[in-house]
Amino acid sequence: MASPGPSWALLQRVADRLTEIRTDRDYRTNIGSAVALEPAQHADESVAGLTLASLGIQRDSNKPHGRHRLLQALAEASIPASLIDAHAQCHAIAADIEDALEDWIPLPNALPVQVEDIVFLDRPEGLPVVAVQVALTIRYRR
């Protein structure tokens, strides 16, 4: 298979960074043990999981004549709703993601990952989970 390109390399680096989120590294949660780049890798709704997915790539309007791009991604964690503190865990995971990515540069041709929005979902589509979605933007040069 041919190389999937710089945007995929960026996603892989962010996913690798998120695997560091563990309590033994001074984070609030252990969601880093369940990071995936494909939603199908979290087939069991009875355990927590964190999926990183790309939403799209745009040309950086601040640099219209260059090769600068904006990769928009979503880190979505799902927690079994049956847990007593599922909603609180979602808040802790969101804080851990922000802490892990703050001022961190994924590749030499990229700027630090920016956390744009955080959305909390209570039983999305009737699923037995609660979820938190953290929208990310990564500026990079192809």
TL;DR of this structure?
This protein is α+β, with helices and mostly antiparallel strands. The chain has helices at 6-18, 86-101; strands at 35-36, 49-59, 68-80, 114-122, 129-141.
Present the secondary structure layout.
Blueprint: H1 6-18, E1 35-36, E2 49-59, E3 68-80, H2 86-101, E4 114-122, E5 129-141
Parallel strand pairs: 1-2
Antiparallel strand pairs: 2-3, 3-5, 4-5
- What count of structural domains? 1
Secondary structure: number of strands? 5
Please describe the biggest sheet, giving its number of strands, its sense, and whether it closes into a barrel: 5 strands, mixed
| Unreliable residue stretches | none
User: CATH class, please?
Assistant: Alpha Beta
CATH homologous superfamily heading? Phage tail protein-like
Order of helices and strands: HEEEHEE
Write down the overall geometry.
elongated
